[in-house]
Design a protein that fits this description.
Lyase 2-enoyl-coa Hydratase, Chain  A, domain 2, 2-enoyl-CoA Hydratase, Chain A, domain 1, alpha/beta, 2 domains, six-stranded mixed sheet, 269 residues, globular
Length: 269
């Protein structure tokens, strides 16, 4: 696919996906949505891609949400059954936000407004680094638009029920420091250092063996909503999956005992 609304770049093992519509605060229309879905699957399936950085073009917005030009033009949903089927089969309306099958690390570099669907999009990430200029909010409240692209699912997992409900119900904006305080942002950095810090973190993750990272992320995702006993079984499955891969699990222990650096085959995958 030729991208017109996003940028996709790979440096070493790090993929950077950038929403590239700064003239409309990186709002996500249907064309951008389809490009994001293609890009996320390309990252997921690229064996040479270890970590993704997700950001927005320009200095003002990560993404200010769903493009309201699309929303205003949506006059008919067709039949209820057809619409319901389309919703359940969707990968997301603002990217890959309804899917949970990327087990590689994702870092969001939040460079400005992350509102409504923009907030839902940055919740796709495992780690969120916020510029000091970043702002977050479930602002779809103001336009009577349902948060239908993962917000009500992912936000409570990130910040807990009470904080999530406060943002969802009030639609208020919060700044980067408040986002950090409630756990929505992992760290806050000066605006001009945002991408440098995101790339630094991504490359440090690339230096680690990738197999155990992916297994552990999958375990965390699959454990959501399960009983405690079920979670232990899922975690054990992860251990077994690594043991089946042979010396990829034992090389680290051997290297420690032999006082040397591990020699990972296929980056420990």
């Amino acid at each position: 696919m030729d991208y017109e609304n996003i940028l996709y770049a790979k440096e070493d093992h790090v993929v950077t996906i950038t929403i590239n519509r700064p003239e409309v605060h990186n709002c996500i229309n249907q064309a951008t949505n389809l490009e994001l879905q293609h890009a996320w699957k390309a990252f997921r399936d690229d064996e040479d891609a270890f970590v993704a950085i997700f950001t927005g073009a320009g200095d003002k917005a990560f993404s200010a949400g769903w493009d309201l030009n699309d929303a205003a033009a949506l006059t008919s949903m067709g039949s209820y059954d057809d619409f319901r089927l389309a919703v359940h089969n969707s990968e997301g309306y603002c990217g890959y936000t309804k899917k949970f099958d990327i087990f590689k690390p994702i870092i969001a570099a939040v460079n400005g407004y992350a509102f409504a669907a923009g907030l839902e999009s940055c919740l796709l990430a495992d780690i969120r680094i916020a510029s000091e200029k970043a702002q977050f909010g479930a602002t779809e409240r103001r336009w009577n638009i349902v948060a239908g692209d993962g917000l009500c699912v992912r936000l409570p997992l990130a910040v807990g029920y009470a904080r999530a409900m406060e943002l969802i119900i009030t639609g208020k904006r919060i700044d980067a420091e408040e986002a950090y305080r409630i756990g929505l942002a992992n760290e806050v950095v000066p605006h001009d250092q945002l991408m440098t810090r995101a790339m630094e973190l991504a490359k440090s993750i690339c230096e680690l063996p990738q197999g155990s990272i992916r297994v552990d992320k999958e375990t965390v995702i699959r454990c959501v909503g399960r009983t405690v006993e079920e979670r232990t079984f899922i975690e054990t499955e992860g251990i077994l999956s690594m043991l089946i891969r042979g010396d990829k699990q034992t090389e680290g222990a051997k290297a420690f005992l032999e006082k040397r650096k591990p020699k990972w085959k296929d980056h420990g995958r």
